[in-house]
Design brief:
Chain C: InterPro entries: BUG, Bug_dom1. Chain C: Belongs to the UPF0065 (bug) family. The structure holds 3 protein chains of 3 kinds. Chain A folds into 2 domains: 3-142 and 244-408, no CATH class; 143-204 and 433-500, no CATH class. Chain A contains 21 helices and 2 strands. Chain A has helices at residues 3-14, 17-35, 41-52, 57-74, 76-82, 91-139, 144-155, 166-180, 206-224, 244-266, 271-286, 298-314, 316-322, 328-339, 348-351, 353-382, 389-408, 411-429, 434-457, 463-467, 469-499, and strands at residues 183-184, 191-192. Chain B has 2 domains: 5-68; 74-140, no CATH class. Chain B has helices at residues 5-25, 39-57, 64-68, 74-97, 99-113, 119-140. Chain C is α/β, with parallel strands linked by helices. Chain C has 2 domains: 43-134 and 265-333, 3-Layer(aba) Sandwich (D-Maltodextrin-Binding Protein, domain 2); 135-264, Periplasmic binding protein-like II (D-Maltodextrin-Binding Protein, domain 2), CATH 3.40.190.10. Chain C has helices at 2-19, 54-68, 87-94, 109-115, 150-159, 175-186, 203-209, 220-228, 277-292, 294-303, 312-333; strands at residues 43-47, 76-80, 102-106, 126-142, 165-168, 195-198, 215-219, 232-237, 264-272, 306-310. The longest helix of chain C is centred in the C-terminal third of the chain and has 22 residues, at 312-333. The chains are: A mainly alpha, B mainly alpha, C alpha/beta. Chains in contact: A-B, A-C, B-C. At the A-C interface, α2, α3, α14, α16 and α17 of A face α1, α2, α3, β6 and α7 of C.
Chain lengths: 500, 152, 337
């Protein structure tokens, strides 16, 4: 069967009444779960697996996929409103989304996030449909050397995440990198900085750090400012209105990051979180007004939201066409496929075209319904910010605590959350930016592991980085990305000198 | 001698770097590694110390607004410690008296502590919010949360 | 905030209604004094890992079948206790000495992790109740690799150990590494010279396919699709006899290639220490029933698991033997703590 026939079969499957009902159900549940603390797509899918047992496979998988991208779609809500990202892909969303909401424009921020998510989701599904078979070889083309180079490229962005002092940004990043070394080292099985505590063996979870540095630290600031009515004009808080300039500002990042996010999603191990960060940084670099970023920039919100949804579709490439799960979430998705008697992999497209193409085609419908479900709810969500400060603070704390507790069901992680909340607050007081910390935490682990994998494979020879073309080009880009801002800075200084 | 805030902070950071580095030298070695587990920690430790020294001599680049963040009245420090204390109590009690009770008590007392006096509103939130969450997690998603002393 | 919880609750209840809820089980079981044992409260099965992994899946599937087929008349809840590769969950169970309502699911890391010095509890601190599942290791190479069987691979590894890189998901001293070491040792390879890298998140298959590494040490099920697609070749599996199933039956065992060694990725249920004999007997019987049930057979097939039932006594002996074997290997590698 040619793939055109397959695509047609897929659309037939996806547009059956039953499939449409279940995709709506899936995205609805997903978007709610994405908003709730601690329930990321992983646990949502995992707990649903036993329930789908015995269902028609295509329908069940269409629903499960809906839960997955629905959760990423909904994950932005708590990030924007409470600075408390419920899923890791939504951390970068808070950088500009939360300031925007604090300026009394919560409705607008949520609307931008929804539209960007929808665009990222839809464009990437088109890409998925056109390129899935072709891209399967790209998905596995990255060896350890190339991953190392990719992570390095991401890290060169630290300087552009600083607010003022570059040295402080670098110190933040080194600290984030240090935290990631806690736990058992994968390459040797050696314990590092565990102090004999079994709770530290697997290292600290990303959400513990993110919720600590962002949500709990923000709670401290909110406690201090609880008496001022700082959410500027709450009058229009629920308004979804976007003016022409907003739409124009969004269009660039939405186009770019639909592609970039998708590609990064295709690479196993990169995923929505890394995609959202890289997009954010990329957009900031590109912007003529980088100083607006972090203060409620439309572009800074649209970029990561587009990218994380696009990456979610991208992650289906290795999953469906190779049977390789690129992340914890897709690993659980793989489990869902297996329970239903469907084995994702190179044969899926020919053996079960109705499932392969059906799941993909259903994502169009799913994304449209996500938009339809989310937009009308925005005014109600935005009103959350009208809850009196003391009560809101209590709720944000509880929200973060459940979020962390539901990962491991271990109170140790809650103490860590409090600790990182204190660290985050101190960092604020002394003007150390948190984003470089979290970026180094995300990229650091893979940077170290892939470097050491590469060197083990090559028996210690650095030539592995030169022989690998992908690695070499990425290293070159990393160098450019590192040098470029320096040159810009120098030229600026020179201009100043000549002017004087 | 320590005139600027940067200098004070950098000394603390050097101390952290030194402790971390001390830990790095105590990581046991693995016989077959080409790049062993201690290489990165040692690098990071040195890097932190070097960067902190740079910070020591760096010009103070903080804006007035950033500096103002540190002016916290004594009373407010008490508030922050109070909230931290309530969080600690929450963690300690969570697995003992259960999710619903702990969360309800926390929401009520934390709001009260922060000056919220509408007892009806906070009472209702304190009861409804944890109950709805508990019901969703345990009954609908079969994810067990600590039930504690309550019978369900 | 209440505002969005209501639709959430509604949505989830809709979903459950659509999928068929299974939460109607009653809690009416009675406690028996001495002789007969029946659960007097709801049973908790702990998966010492997060949602979605092998332990979690086993626990949830077993709980589902036990309740739906009415093998156990009462409520069974699955709890996740993640951390330390299992150590956090084990220390949680260790608090419930003698409690017959706390069970947990476990597998070979129960042997590896204590030996690697990462848990103060080992299998002797608990009551093995019944093993239910067996899985086996497979060693895969790319389709265009020069090795046709395990012996050719091991010959090359004897000649030039630095030329072959083995990849697995776990860190050295744990499962993917040790299953390869165990077979290689039996084939006469110097196991201290094996070059092993660990790659998380399914990175192992990626690295095998793109040629970064040479051999992927993994579970049998992970290889099937790639074999079907003609991308990889399985040089050997670690079962006693050939496996059954479409592609699986073509995988040669290490044994038939003259390497007299096997490795079983067993999975079963434990209880806390000092469980009363009546309770052990009760659960043995129930897990036997589970293992024999058609519903669980279907699940085994979907996940590519094999049946391996051991009762409490057999299980204990089996685990002691396993530990001794692994201990010897780790000693030789110098990794034992």
């Amino acid at each position: 069967m040619g793939s055109l026939d397959g695509i047609i079969t897929g659309f037939q499957t996806a547009f059956s009444l039953e499939a449409i009902l279940f995709v709506i159900l899936g995205v609805f549940v997903g978007t709610i779960i994405g908003m709730l603390p601690g329930l990321g797509p992983i646990s949502a899918i995992a707990v649903m697996i036993p329930m789908t047992f015995g269902m028609e496979p295509a329908t069940a998988l269409i629903m499960m996929a809906g839960v997955y991208y629905g959760a990423i779609f909904g994950g932005s809500t708590s990030s924007i409103l409470l600075n408390a990202p419920g899923v890791s892909g939504a951390v970068a969303t808070s950088f500009d989304g939360y300031p925007m909401a604090q300026q009394g424009k919560a409705g607008k921020a949520l609307a931008i996030a929804a539209i960007a998510s929808f665009t990222g989701g839809t464009v990437s599904v088109v890409l998925l449909m056109l390129l899935a078979p072709a891209l399967s070889s790209v998905a596995v083309s990255f060896g350890p050397a190339a991953y190392f180079a990719l992570m390095l490229l991401g890290l060169t962005a630290i300087a552009s995440l600083s607010e003022g002092s570059t040295i402080k940004a670098l110190i933040s990043a080194v600290a984030g990198f240090m935290v990631v070394t806690i736990g058992i080292d994968a390459q040797t099985g050696t314990q590092r900085y565990t102090f004999g505590n079994m709770n530290l063996l697997e290292g600290l979870d990303f959400l513990v750090i993110a919720l600590g540095l962002f949500a709990i630290a923000e709670v401290c600031s909110l406690v201090l400012s609880r008496k001022d009515k700082s959410i500027g004009d709450t009058h229009n808080i629920g308004s979804l209105k976007l003016d022409k300039k907003d739409l124009k500002d969004m269009s660039g990042p939405m186009t770019r990051h639909s592609f970039l996010g998708f590609i990064l999603g295709v690479l196993p191990g990169a995923g929505a979180t890394i995609a959202s960060f890289i997009s954010y940084i990329f957009e900031k670099r590109l912007s003529k007004n980088p100083e607006e970023f972090g203060k409620g920039s439309v572009k800074g919100l649209a970029a990561p939201e587009t990218a994380n949804n696009a990456a979610t579709s991208g992650a289906f490439v290795p999953l469906l066409s190779l049977g390789i799960p690129g992340s914890g979430t897709t690993a659980v998705m793989l489990g869902a496929f297996l329970v239903l008697g469907v084995q994702p992999g190179p044969m899926l497209m020919t053996d079960r075209p109705e499932i392969f193409w059906g799941v993909i085609a259903s994502m169009y419908i799913g994304n449209i319904f996500l938009l339809i479900i989310n937009l009308p709810l925005i005014p109600y969500f935005a009103k959350i910010l009208k809850i009196p400060r003391p009560l809101l603070i209590s709720l944000v704390i509880v929200f973060s605590m459940i979020g962390v507790y539901a990962i491991s069901f271990n109170t140790f992680d809650l103490y860590m959350l409090l600790l990182f909340g204190v660290i985050g607050f101190l960092m604020r007081l002394f003007s150390f930016p948190a984003p470089p910390f979290i970026l180094a935490f995300i990229l650091g682990g893979m940077l170290e592991q892939s470097l050491r994998q590469a060197l083990t494979i090559s028996n210690g020879s650095l030539s592995i980085f030169l022989d690998d073309k992908i690695a070499l080009s990425l290293l070159f880009l990393a160098l450019l990305s590192f040098v470029f801002p320096l040159v810009k800075q120098l030229r600026k200084n020179k201009d100043k000198a000549t002017e004087a | 001698m320590l005139k600027t805030m940067n200098q004070k902070v950098s000394l603390v950071l050097v101390a952290i770097g030194a402790l971390y580095l001390f830990g790095a030298f105590r990581i046991p070695s693995y016989p077959y590694a080409i790049v062993d587990a201690d290489v990165l920690p040692k690098t990071l430790g040195v890097l932190l110390i070097v960067l902190s020294i740079f910070l020591f001599f760096a010009k103070d680049s903080e804006t007035e607004e950033q500096k103002k963040r540190r002016d916290i009245p004594k009373k407010e420090i008490g508030m922050l410690l109070g909230v931290a204390g309530l969080i600690l109590a929450y963690i300690l009690l969570l697995e003992v008296i259960g999710f619903v009770l702990t969360t309800a008590l926390f929401i009520f007392f934390c709001s009260f502590f922060l000056g919220y006096r509408n007892h009806v509103a906070s009472g209702i939130t304190a009861v409804v919010f944890p109950l709805v969450l508990y019901f969703m997690f345990t009954e609908l998603l079969s994810i067990t949360l600590p039930s504690g002393v309550l019978p369900f | 905030m209440k505002k969005f919880l209501l639709p959430a609750a509604l949505g989830l209840s809709m979903m459950l209604a659509a999928c068929g809820s299974d939460d109607g089980a009653s809690e009416t079981a009675n406690a028996g004094d001495g002789g007969e044992f029946t659960p007097s409260e709801s049973i908790e099965i702990v998966a010492p890992a997060g949602a979605g992994g092998g332990w979690d899946t086993t626990a949830r599937m077993a709980a589902k079948v036990l309740q739906e087929e009415e093998i156990i008349d009462g409520k069974i809840g699955v709890t996740n206790k993640e951390g330390g590769g299992g150590a956090v969950g084990w220390s949680y169970i260790a608090n419930y000495e003698g409690n017959p309502h706390k069970l947990f699911v476990t597998s070979p890391p129960m042997i590896f992790i204590p030996l690697n010095g990462q848990s103060e509890y080992d299998h002797e601190d608990f009551t093995p109740i019944a093993n239910v599942i067996a899985d086996y290791a497979a060693f895969a190479v790319r389709e265009d690799a020069k090795w046709q069987d395990l012996n050719e691979l091991f010959e090359d590894m004897k000649k030039d150990p630095t030329s072959v890189t083995v990849v697995g998901t776990s860190s050295p001293g744990s499962m993917d590494h040790m299953q390869f070491v165990q077979i290689a040792k039996a084939a006469g390879v110097d196991i201290t010279k094996i070059k092993y890298v660990s790659a998380q998140d399914a990175g192992g298959m990626t690295q095998l396919l793109n040629g970064s590494v040479d051999v992927y040490s993994t579970g049998v099920a992970e290889t099937v699709e790639q074999v079907k697609a003609g991308k990889v070749r399985v040089l050997g599996v670690t079962s006693e006899e050939r496996l059954e199933g479409e592609v699986l039956e073509d995988f040669p065992t290490a044994k038939e290639q003259g390497i007299d060694e096997t490795f079983i990725n067993w999975r079963g249920f434990f209880g806390p220490a000092d469980m009363e004999p009546a309770a052990i007997e009760y659960y043995e019987e129930k897990f036997k029933e589970l293992s024999d049930s058609e519903a669980f057979g279907e699940i085994r097939e979907q996940f590519g698991w094999n049946e391996m039932y051991l009762d409490s006594e057999e299980y204990k002996t089996f685990l002691d033997e396993q530990r001794e074997e692994i201990q010897t290997l780790l000693d030789e590698l110098g990794l034992a703590k």
